[in-house]
Amino acid sequence: MDLRFDYYIDATPEQVWHVLTTDEGVKSTFFGCTIRSTFQVGDEMAYVGPGKDGDDTVHVYGKILQFEPHHIFSFTEHPGPAYYENHAELQTRVTITLEPIGGCTKLTLIHDHWTEGHPSYANTSNNWSMMLSSIKTYAETGKALDFGY
């Protein structure tokens, strides 16, 4: 089953894009991770940060499918090797689109193409809600939400 989230953010698409693609923004809103990527279509990407394998734990990795600044960011996603032995077999797709609506930005995230029986599905909805709420707050105020970890 696909996951879909729509958030309306009191910021420009450029400001939201900054949160989604810079080390500063990602680290503040993705549980201390940074994003490692050239942001070129077809290239590898990974969210890396503190976790089971120390400070350089690969939480998720994949390939860039689409990358149009201030508009769309799409990638395949696999859970990091620290989570599942069969991580390479477990795949999904994440697509984030930004659309100006009046003086704000509509962020739509669709997480689909789930491998059958994917063990991360249950936690993903909650995690995206937390991260997207923090992205919204950060873009609007410059401060991320404090989830206590």
From TrEMBL:
InterPro entries per record: ASHA1/2-like_C, START-like_dom_sf
Domain of life, per lineage: Bacteria
Residue stretches making up the Activator of Hsp90 ATPase homologue 1/2-like C-terminal domain: 10-140
CDD domains for this protein: SRPBCC_CalC_Aha1-like_GntR-HTH
Stored Pfam families: AHSA1
UniProt family annotation: Belongs to the AHA1 family.
Protein name: Polyketide cyclase
Organism of this sequence: Brevibacillus antibioticus
